[in-house]
Automatic annotation (TrEMBL):
HTH araC/xylS-type domain span: 176-274
Keywords: Activator, Cytoplasm, DNA-binding, Transcription, Transcription regulation
Coiled-coil region: none
SUPFAM superfamilies: Homeodomain-like, Regulatory protein AraC
PROSITE patterns cross-referenced by the UniProt entry: HTH_ARAC_FAMILY_1, HTH_ARAC_FAMILY_2
Superkingdom of the organism of origin: Bacteria
Pfam assignment, any one: HTH_18
Keyword DNA-binding recorded: yes
Organism: Fictibacillus terranigra
Protein's name in the database: AraC family transcriptional regulator
Gene3D superfamilies (UniProt xref): Homeodomain-like, Jelly Rolls
Length: 280
């Protein structure tokens, strides 16, 4: 397994890519990713689960989640990748809530089937965004940003449509609200007991339901959000490490270094040195 560091020139990018049947390692990166399959079929693997994609299918890749894909022999696939960081939606009112489906590990499937209206709208928006760039249209970057928001809205509509709780009082719906709250407030000093009280659940039930939804404990989830923000700042600013740590919600440089290495396998300084190897 290797970590692929994608350096975005902006907080988001649309790119057209092709893939072959040659096997390659699983890879992970800090960006959020949406893949829209255009031609032929592919095999998409997330850790230990495999999906088989057909033209029009949409795949959601969560940050730090290992994923891997390859085509059938002699049938290279074509797809549009949308890569973006959380900072791309921070200036939108309640924009962070658009990211919630990407962090709900167990209840939101990474595949949006081509035969759903959500996938069709996502595909149309992705193609139009790509054409605007390739044709060099005026204000193509603004057009792409508008298409990105439309795509994220469709992802959220798909999540709500396919994963409605049968009972409004189910813990899942309450924990989902907490995920959105943490996406908005991860830089604050959040206490797990306080978060549990917001759901009206006891501490034990809250921890269990939170892990079921996200695959992480509340503290692990919080640290992952902070590390992801730090990774964004490392390649978009020249802030020194201690200022960057505080700006991401960490209370000390040592805590920042420890959590950063835990999630990425390298120090923040090493990440900053290596981030320029790949440009998107």
């Amino acid at each position: 397994m290797y970590v692929e560091h994608l350096r975005l020139e902006r907080s988001f990018a649309f790119c057209r890519v092709w893939g072959s049947h040659e096997k390659h390692d699983l890879h992970i990166h800090d960006c959020l990713e949406i893949g829209v399959l255009l031609n032929n079929e592919l095999e998409y693997r997330f850790s230990h689960r495999t999906y088989y994609g057909r033209p029009g299918d949409v795949f959601l890749c969560r940050p730090f989640e290992p994923h891997w894909s390859y085509a059938k022999p002699d049938q290279p696939f074509e797809c549009i990748l949308i890569l973006f960081t959380p900072s791309s939606v921070r200036n939108i009112p309640k924009g962070n809530k658009l990211l919630a489906p990407f962090y709900a590990k167990h209840y939101i499937r990474p595949l949006i089937p081509a035969n759903t209206p959500f996938a069709r709208k996502i595909k149309s928006a992705a193609i139009n965004a790509m054409k605007a760039q390739e044709n060099g249209e005026d204000s193509w970057l603004t057009q792409q940003y508008m298409h990105l928001i439309e795509i994220l809205l469709q992802v959220n509509e798909f999540a709500k449509d396919h994963f409605k709780p049968s009972n409004e009082n189910l813990p899942l719906s309450k924990v989902g609200d907490i995920v959105g709250y943490m996406l908005d407030h991860y830089k604050d000093q959040l206490d797990s007991d306080t978060l549990a009280k917001k759901t009206g659940m006891g501490r034990t039930m809250f921890y269990r339901e939170f892990r079921m939804l996200t695959g992480l404990s509340p503290n692990q989830f919080l640290n992952r959000l902070r590390v992801q923000n730090a990774m964004d700042l490392l390649h978009s600013t020249n802030e020194n490490m201690i200022d960057l740590a505080f700006a991401s919600g960490f209370q000390s440089l040592s805590a920042f270094n420890k959590q950063f290495k835990r999630f990425t396998g390298q120090s923040p300084r090493d990440y900053r040195k290596r981030m320029g190897l790949i440009h998107m």
